[in-house]
Amino acid sequence: MATQLKNLSDFSATEIPSASPYKFAIAVAEWNAEITGALYEGAYQSLISNGALADNIYSYNVPGSFELTSAADLLLKNNPELDAVICLGCVIQGETKHFDFICDAVANGLSNVAVKYSKPVIFGVLTTNNQQQAVDRAGGKHGNKGDEAAITAIKMAKLAETLKG
Ligand SMILES: Nc1c(NC[C@H](O)[C@H](O)[C@H](O)CO)[nH]c(=O)[nH]c1=O
Ligand SMILES: CC(=O)[C@@H](O)COP(=O)(O)O
User: Fold this and answer.
1) CATH code (residue 156)
2) How many structural domains does the chain have?
3) ipTM of this complex prediction, to 2 decimal places
4) Are 142 and 7 in contact (CB under 8 A)?
């Protein structure tokens, strides 16, 4: 399996640009707060350790992962100076198909918002079968998806800046 015994947050082999020029929003779902809180800490600290200014990081909570799309849209509509929006959530399979609908809606929704505003919108949403898989990816043996999301945001902000000319 792709992630077996792999730390998904190991970026030692890749070059990470400085985050100092960029403004970031972080939208965090409150569902599974112990997990999303760990994702947020990972994302925030990764931005800071790569040079982002604390004053350039704007953080917001939303009720659940489904609302991340609305948050990303509102953030980019009302704050054109943002260079990237990081969306963090944790969707854990329950008894019904609700999981499938949320995951599909968020993945497609965030992608559509990114294209709508030509701005990076980062999918930092865990979609797991159980709680342990989420714990393993929020600072556990498979790293922290929040770290990955932050690094992705920095790289995409740099790319957008480069392509803008
Ligand atoms: N079950 C999970 C949810 N459910 C709530 C939805 O995200 C949404 O807030 C609700 O359907 C109202 O629109 N959200 C998660 O983030 N994680 C879950 O496991
Ligand atoms: C992903 C969800 O909405 C899920 O946690 C809710 O649980 P259930 O499918 O048992 O209603």
Assistant:
1) 3.40.50.960
2) 1
3) 0.97
4) yes
